[in-house]
UniProtKB/TrEMBL annotation:
Entry keyword set: Membrane, Transmembrane, Transmembrane helix
Presence of keyword Transmembrane: yes
Protein name (database record): Beta-lactamase class A catalytic domain-containing protein
Gene3D superfamilies linked: DD-peptidase/beta-lactamase superfamily (3.40.710.10)
Domain Beta-lactamase class A catalytic: 74-256
Signal peptide: none
GO biological process, one term: response to antibiotic
Transmembrane regions: 6-29
GO MF entries: beta-lactamase activity
Amino acid sequence: MKKVLAVAVIIVAVIIVCGISFTLFKFFWSRSHEPPKLTEEQQEAEKRKVRKENLIEIIREIVKKDTPATTLSVGIYDFNNDEYFGYNDQVAQHAAGVSQLLTATYVFNLADKGTIGLKDKMGAYDIETQLQFLVNQSSTDSLDYLFERFSATDQNTFAKKIGMTATDLSLGKNLMSAKDAVTLMKKIEKENLLTESSKTKLYSYMQKTSIERFFSPILNQANLTYYHKAGSWEGESHDVAYVTDAKNPFILAVFTTSRSGTVSPTQMKEIAIVVLEYFTEI
């Protein structure tokens, strides 16, 4: 009897030990296979990811409802989070006057290196004045003078060097993507492409320009400081703006081309509104 009882006790003990072991195994196994908890920074990044996806979907809807627009590209850069995203943004398009920002940046860069002098004679003025006319007024005369002195080939080489992948200023092309426009603006502001003096001059040309009907009304209503270069040509309306004093500074580029030959600024304003809302919320 004692022997049977001892065996029973042993069996019960074994069962208990096995049960405890199995429970512990399940506990530690489940813990080891749980996804790691996200840091606060990672959680915020996930929230922004969802908001970015929602923003791109809204932009798609804006594009859909305006049938005359055959192409529309958007590039966006978030300075605080060092994040770029866009819509149809790597397509090379005729850049109209936006490409003149590259020309001006290239020439200022040469001046900063001491290769040329901004006070060198060019036409009836000097190089610096021609740059002002080019950026602020989209002067075709200034563009002609500058391209006589600074070749498209050299400007294209400069563009590739700073990370612009779809840009070609060769005669008859004048191509750039919305992403390239953002890249250029980002390099100017963030990566010491120009000296502070040259950057200040360039930015002064990028306010109260000859084309203020695309983003400008929306940004002005929000009392924001911004620098931009717009272009308009035979159904093309493009704009790239660096918005500085929002809670979250950003760059926005929109390139749009119309089948009808005329582009209403409505789409660009609507996109500026939803992008501004995005940066207000994050």
